[in-house]
Amino acid sequence: MKIEEIQSQLNYLKEIGNLRTLNTLDTNLINLSSNDYLGIAHNLELKDKFYKSFKPNLSSSSSRLITGSYDAVMELEKQAERIYKKPCIMFNSGFDANSSIIETFFNKDSLILTDRLNHASIYDGIINSKAKFIRFKHLDLNHLEDLLNKYSDGYEDILVITETIYSMDGDIINIDRLAKMKKRFNFQLMVDEAHSYGVFGYGIVHNLNLIDCVDFLVIPLGKGGGSVGAMVICDKIYKSYIINKSRKFIFSTSLPPVNHQWNLFILNNMNNFDKERAKLELLKNYTLKLLNENNIETQSNTHIISIVIGDNHKLATISNNLKQKGFLLYGVKEPTVPKGTARFRIGLNPYITRKQIELFIKELKNELDTVF
Ligand SMILES: Cc1ncc(COP(=O)(O)O)c(C=O)c1O
């Protein structure tokens, strides 16, 4: 691209209030935009306990296929296999895992049916795979069923993709029904648990005993997992194919052992976060109640609470005003969410107090009533 074209596109983004910039995180603000849903990433006591146990190695220095398969990652995969009762393979990120699985296993002869609000990494994989794809209405399994009725005879290779909890809407798929549909129609199922791991322990699919129904269970660890990387739970044959064919797995330096040791530590401690989960649940119910009492609308029913504002400039003004009052709440705009649905997305965690939420909602209500 020519510099003039780049500049003109950036100018346009600025004009419509959609130019993104990077700012240093102000840790003095009450952070309502974090994905650290259980507070694991900021839990000093937990980190002390972790660091005392070994000397961290901060680089793997190569791909897993050269010398990057340290004990830490091998042990993590073994432990995940014991828990999920299916093999696990680690990717460096959820983005890599999603896009790589789709582009490695599916091709121009495949049909991919994807919830229209699925994450960008899923779309990248679909585009790279060159498969035909159709987006079904968000969480609408009747629509998916219609599509399956229409297309399942015409394709040998159909993939259905969903997330469990949706990142930008804070709503949940009916995974039980999806599993039943899989028995009726012949498709493969890929599920992304980025926003449920941790909050729902090992994840919703695991808790509902549906591991066998999911061909590719992707569990990114950068959110409730308080870390980085992604576990993919899949059959042995798929794991072997990934090791041999996935370009993002083969041609990339693997995460440092310290990250895998931390991932293993968190996996092994997953059942010790019940106190945090209970606090999060209470805070979620309290926040939803206060929003309702203040007539602030949301469709969410999880620890992710989305408040649609619509206009980019209004969103930015409210976000700046809230910052002056001590609250960090980023606005989410297109293309992360569909055009015209710019919104606030509150990510709760157990370290936010009821008092802070009360103050926050009072200020938010004031902003919504006065900023036009
Ligand atoms: C649903 C979903 N899947 C995958 C990802 C990507 O995960 P990672 O941040 O580990 O690349 C994200 C992160 O935003 C996400 O929200």
UniProtKB/TrEMBL annotation:
Residues 28-362 form the Aminotransferase class I/classII large domain. The keyword Cytoplasm does not apply. SUPFAM superfamilies: PLP-dependent transferases. Keywords: Aminotransferase, Pyridoxal phosphate, Transferase. Coiled coil: none annotated. One of its GO terms (biological process) is biotin biosynthetic process. The keyword Transport does not apply. InterPro entries: Aminotransferase_I/II_large (IPR004839), AON_synthase_class-II (IPR050087), PyrdxlP-dep_Trfase (IPR015424), PyrdxlP-dep_Trfase_major (IPR015421), PyrdxlP-dep_Trfase_small (IPR015422). Its cofactor is pyridoxal 5'-phosphate. It comes from the Bacteria. Gene3D superfamilies: Aspartate Aminotransferase, domain 1 (3.90.1150.10), Type I PLP-dependent aspartate aminotransferase-like (Major domain) (3.40.640.10). GO terms for molecular function: 8-amino-7-oxononanoate synthase activity; pyridoxal phosphate binding; transaminase activity. This is Aminotransferase class I/II-fold pyridoxal phosphate-dependent enzyme. The lineage of its organism: Bacteria, Fusobacteriati, Fusobacteriota, Fusobacteriia, Fusobacteriales.
